[in-house]
Amino acid sequence: PYFAIAGPLEQQLRQLEKQVGASGASGIASKIGKDGFQVCMDVSHFKPSELTVKVQDNSVLVEGTHEEREDDHGFITRHFIRRYALPEGYEADKVESTLSSDGVLTVKVPKPPALEEKGNERIVQIQRWGP
């Protein structure tokens, strides 16, 4: 029902990571689709225990932090906070998140029933005036 991360999108996320740099969350893609709101981000530099997703004031906050560790270029410490305002009508208590084995964090919120598409047709109420 939600947008699946497929090979091409995953490759785009990896390319974005190389362009953006090695620190923090990178390769971020967000969209509102027919099934709801979704954000995907590459957090492969973080362990699951180093990530938090929380809802605050109708926004989703994603935070990642890790202490200094060695990588191919020396030592690095990473920390990021990303905030996403939920689209109007979307319910904060419906937020879900998943982490894939290759380090792609997906945060999604289903489309609220009130926003379900009903096509382009609607009945317009006729108001009566006068006696």
From TrEMBL:
Ion transport in keyword set: no
GO MF, any single term: unfolded protein binding
Entry-linked Pfam families: HSP20 (PF00011)
GO cellular component assignments: cytoplasm; nucleus
Domain SHSP: residue ranges: 19-127
Keywords annotated in UniProt: Stress response
GO biological process: protein refolding; response to heat
InterPro entries from the UniProt entry: A-crystallin/Hsp20_dom, Alpha-crystallin/sHSP_animal, HSP20-like_chaperone
Family of the protein in this entry: Belongs to the small heat shock protein (HSP20) family.
Protein name (record): Heat shock protein 23
Species, as recorded: Drosophila ficusphila
Lineage of producing organism: Eukaryota, Metazoa, Ecdysozoa, Arthropoda, Hexapoda
